[in-house]
Amino acid sequence: MPATARPAPRDGDDRHETESARLDRNYEELLQELRVAQTGVQILFAFLLTLPFQYGFTKTSGLDRTVFILTLLCATVATALLIAPVGFHRRVFRQGRKGDLVHAASSFALAGLAALALAMSGALFVVTDVVLGLGWAAGLAAAAFAVLIFFWYFAPVFWGRRRARTGPGDQSSADGGRGG
């Protein structure tokens, strides 16, 4: 029997998979990530939809109601973006465009996470303003937004650069320098 040629691994990757298999795996992993994000945005969205019907909502300030509407819009946009890969997949199904699908779905996910970060920060602002006042609300909402953006956008870049400096085979970069 002739030996089957296996594709060479990509830099930093030892999977030996075909381009098609890599795209399939990337899409499956992305769908798993989207399931987590969608659950969070759906819970937030449901909470936001019920808030105006709660006793006392009419007593909130005009600023709180404005931030609430902007937050509701951000949650709507986040929901649309995090679900968008499904519609995109339906439109390109069996057209040999898996690369386009993975790229678009990744872009939708990143934009959806940004909208979700804004929605979460806005919801925190409204609740905190009612409970603690405007100063606390502004500070905590800004801090929450900064933390979300750091962990969702900048931390992966930081760890990627760190790994590039130390090399993919350096165990200290993979385990945070703990040696095991």
From TrEMBL:
It comes from the Bacteria. The chain crosses the membrane at residues 34-55, 67-89, 101-127, 133-155. Keywords: Membrane, Transmembrane, Transmembrane helix. This is Sodium:proton antiporter. It comes from Actinocorallia herbida.
